[in-house]
Specification:
Blueprint (H helix, E strand, L loop, with lengths): L1 E3 L1 H4 L9 H4 L1 H7 L7 H16 L10 E3 L4
Antiparallel strand pairs: 1-2
Length: 70
C-alpha cells in the first residue's frame, strides 16, 4: 500500500508531458515484482521520476510513503 504526493504523478519531462499522462508511472508500478523489498520499491519509483524529469526543474515535493502488509 502506498500514498504519494502529486510530485510523483505530475512532474513534467522536457516536452512538458506529465508523468501520469505518459503512462510511465503505471508501467513502472506494474513492473515491480511483489517480492521486491519495500525500500527498493520506493527507490525504483523515485529514481524513475527523477529520470523522467531529467534536468527539468520541479516546483513540487516528491513524497512517497509505502507499507507492505504481510
Amino acid at each position: 500500500m502506498w500514498s504519494m504526493t502529486d510530485g510523483i504523478k505530475e512532474p513534467c519531462n522536457v516536452d512538458g508531458v506529465m508523468c501520469r499522462e505518459s503512462g510511465r508511472l503505471a508501467e513502472v508500478l506494474s513492473n515491480i515484482p511483489v517480492e521486491m523489498p519495500i525500500e527498493e520499491v520506493v527507490d525504483t519509483i523515485i529514481n524513475d521520476v527523477e529520470a523522467y524529469t531529467a534536468d527539468e526543474e520541479q516546483d513540487d515535493d516528491i513524497t512517497l510513503v509505502a507499507v507492505r502488509v504481510s
